[in-house]
Automatic annotation (TrEMBL):
Domain of life: Bacteria
Similarity comment: family membership: Belongs to the TsaE family.
Pfam families membership: TsaE (PF02367)
GO molecular function: ATP binding; metal ion binding
InterPro entries listed in its UniProt record: P-loop_NTPase, T6A_TsaE
UniProt protein name: tRNA threonylcarbamoyladenosine biosynthesis protein TsaE
Amino acid sequence: MSGVELYIEDEAAMLQLGQALAEQTAGHGILFLQGDLGAGKTTLSRGIIRGLGHTGPVKSPTFTLVEPYEINKHRVWHFDLYRLTDPEELEYLGIRDYFADDDLCLIEWPQQGKGYLPQADIEISIKAHNDGRFVQLLPFSTRGKSWCAALSA
Ligand code: ADP
Ligand code: MG
């Protein structure tokens, strides 16, 4: 199984894709979210976090760098590295600790942390197309491959 590309026509469908991803990951793994400002990275993250059972707001972590969630027995760390000026800053944030327990890590703008982030299970790239979005999912691990296979079925 290699990558999957889906056309996601609106915000509601994006949230649904997040729900499907939440079910696949079962709250574990590393997901990179790539795409321009306004592509839909935070929207998809919101779908994933809600899909795990979170009922409150999911705001963009642009200024905080990371927003933590405790959902039932799961922990989710939602990163937005857009404002990181140097990937080395992640070292001072204790970035390694976030990946230690196989929690779910959603990382917007991962290219900003290049060299300081582990390999993702999947890299998700979102591109505007007409009124919707093309969402490409590329797996980099065994479980990432099985998530992609399930989403393309
Ligand atoms: P990013 O985090 O990539 O900067 P956001 O998720 O904050 O982007 O914003 C994306 C915007 O695009 C929101 O206004 C959202 O309603 C809209 N959007 C999200 N997914 C879709 C989609 N599949 N089709 C059309 N519009 C979408
Ligand atoms: Mg965002």
